[in-house]
Design goal:
Helix content is 37%, strand content 25%. By secondary structure, it is α/β, with parallel strands linked by helices. It is globular and about 50 Å long. The mean pLDDT is 92. The structure holds adenosine-5'-triphosphate and magnesium ion (MG). Magnesium ion (MG) binds at residues 40-41, 85, 162.
């Protein structure tokens, strides 16, 4: 479980997050919906302890991470897989090398275990036959699936997705969203999906928090979003895609 308790964050003089409280439960998919530049990626960075809030507290599985050192944060981050906006794959490594990289570098697992886990993710992500290809030769949807496989390979408890369908065509988006649903249904994983695409929310999220001008203006089960009265939410329900 992840909890943000009254978190505020500034970049320079600009206040990005104002006194935000948010709870992410295990074994559920939570979406954070908001327009471009509102601070969605920033929230994920706070959850991973990559940046510190100006005030407020952040907890992961009941442990406060707000003032933790980098060394202690390492164990916390292992509980959370991260799929970055834009995938962050290594261009000069094959798909198999990309998948196995962190296991090899950080966990020092035996090669036989690395190969076993890589093969498992290749199959899960539907990437059979592409093991020795470079990322550039794959479609956008396939690259996103490699990034998901690379986050999953640690066997995290929770997986954080930054804009999982941005830049993908409708068919690839659907595939990614069903992959995310299958993580929760088959592996009992929790997930956070940060997105500006409202269809992502309706397709996979159990609950949704809407971030607007630094504040959470809605936080409830997805079904209730249709009945929200805030003008910003009313406008995104009719326009579907969020613009600044
Ligand atoms: N390191 C930084 N220093 C200063 N400003 C930053 C920094 N990182 C982000 N910002 C600014 O903070 C705001 C929130 O950024 P963030 O990346 O969290 O937004 P976002 O909601 O993820 O946007 P997008 O939908 O475009 O990915 C933006 O206006 C951005 O320009
Ligand atoms: Mg972002």
């Amino acid at each position: 479980m992840i909890e943000l308790r009254k978190v505020s964050l500034k970049y320079g003089d600009r206040e990005i997050l104002k006194n935000i409280s948010l709870t992410i439960k295990d074994n559920a998919i939570k979406a954070i919906l908001g327009p471009s530049g509102v601070g969605k990626s920033t929230i994920l960075k706070l959850m991973l302890g990559l940046i510190k809030p100006n005030s407020g507290r952040i907890f992961v599985d009941g442990t406060e991470i707000t003032g933790m050192t980098e060394t202690s944060l390492y164990a916390i981050r292992r509980k959370m897989g991260m799929v970055f906006q834009g995938n962050a794959l290594f261009d000069s490594m094959t798909i198999s090398e990309n998948l196995g990289f962190f296991l090899r570098e950080n966990m020092k697992l035996p090669e036989s275990e690395i190969s076993r886990r890589v093969a498992e993710q290749i199959q899960f992500a539907g990437l059979e036959g592409y093991e020795e290809q470079l990322p550039e030769s794959l479609s956008g949807g396939m690259r996103r699936r490699v990034a998901i496989g690379r986050a999953m390979i640690f066997k995290p408890h929770m997986i954080l997705f930054d804009e999982p369908t941005a830049g993908l065509d409708p068919v690839s988006s659907k595939k990614i969203l069903s992959l995310i649903s299958s993580l929760r249904n088959n592996n009992n994983l929790g997930a956070v999906i940060v997105t500006h695409i409202i269809d992502d929310v309706f397709n996979v999220a159990d609950s949704v928090a809407v971030l607007y001008k630094g504040e959470i203006i809605f936080d409830d089960v997805t079904e209730k979003l249709h009945r929200a009265t805030h003008p910003f939410i009313r406008s995104i329900l009719s326009d579907k895609i969020l613009e600044l």
